[in-house]
Design brief:
Layout: H1 2-12, H2 16-27, H3 47-52, H4 61-78, H5 83-92, H6 94-100, H7 107-131, E1 139-141, E2 144-146, E3 151-154, E4 160-163
Antiparallel strand pairs: 1-2, 3-4
Helix pairs in contact: 1-2, 1-4, 2-7, 4-5, 5-6, 5-7
Length: 165
């Protein structure tokens, strides 16, 4: 499954470790996973999201990954490369992220962003070891190299805030 994710991520211009991290948190790479809310497959696409991104069979691993990575690419473009907002929207939807101007105050979404962030760090380190370069510190998109970590901090109000510098 990891090979499919890496291939589709490269085709879509999405950082492969990010796509891997989302798949791991969403389904733990189970192509037949179904959530209590009806999300399906590796990337846990809800039926409306699957239709929106051209997926007719959410249990076909490559088709599901293609739809999920297209959605991630859309979110990264929509939020101008802000990984935190894109990941939060993958979980809670764009409307919620727009309404709260960032990660919504939902425990599930905050936990989701933290888990994807943790997995992203591990995935980048693994990619760096596998390629023998510093792939964990940068991504290439449209010829420009950038690095967008997700950082968590606790505000004076006791809330956890996520940001990408």
């Amino acid at each position: 499954m990891a090979e499919i994710i890496d291939k589709v991520a490269a085709e879509q211009g999405v950082e492969a470790p990010l796509a891997q991290s989302v798949a791991r948190v969403e389904s733990n790479y189970n192509p037949f996973a179904v959530s209590p809310k009806g999300a399906q497959g590796l990337m846990q696409l809800e039926p409306a999201t699957a239709r929106r991104f051209g997926v007719s069979n959410s249990f076909d691993p490559e088709e599901n990954v293609r739809g999920g990575v297209k959605y991630l690419k859309f979110l990264l473009d929509y939020y101008q490369g802000d990984y935190t907002k894109a990941v939060a929207a993958y979980n809670a939807g764009e409307k919620a992220v727009d309404r709260y101007r960032g990660t919504p105050p939902y425990a599930e979404t905050r936990d989701y962003v933290a888990r994807v962030s943790k997995n992203l760090k591990s995935a980048r380190q693994k990619a760096s070891r596998n390629t023998g370069d510093n792939a964990g510190s940068k991504i290439t998109s449209g010829g420009a190299e950038t690095y967008r970590p997700i950082q968590a901090s606790v505000g004076s109000d006791g809330q956890i805030y996520y940001r990408t510098p």
